[in-house]
Amino acid sequence: MRASLVSLLRVAVAAYAMSALTAHASPLCIKERTPFALSQDTVKWTMSIAPGADCIQGLRWSYMQIFNVSVVSGPSRGQLAVVGSGFRYSAESEARGADKFTLLISGKNRHDPGTSTLEVEVNPQ
Hints:
Layout: H1 2-20, E1 41-49, E2 54-58, E3 64-73, E4 79-83, E5 86-90, E6 99-109, E7 112-124
Parallel strand pairs: 1-7
Antiparallel strand pairs: 2-5, 3-6, 4-5, 6-7
């Protein structure tokens, strides 16, 4: 009994330590997400992000399947990573003006396959 309590305490301490190492993510970095339709359309989003913060954003709507997300043009100031059916943008630690990037999304909107282009403009807070 005592050994399992000690093990549980170790797991709790490790989880707490790991939580302190997580990146600062901005949950509301994209205020309005205009839906894309996977119909060869182009949609523009605007992101506001603090210097040194991360924006983690999913792209799937409830009625869609996303098969692939690829970077058409990457940001010039921040870092961008495609993560599953979404992306993670990491802003520079010192804000130096606006940034932008473009993604190509392919999948199915209900039953119809297609692609959409997503242009994201990044503004520092």
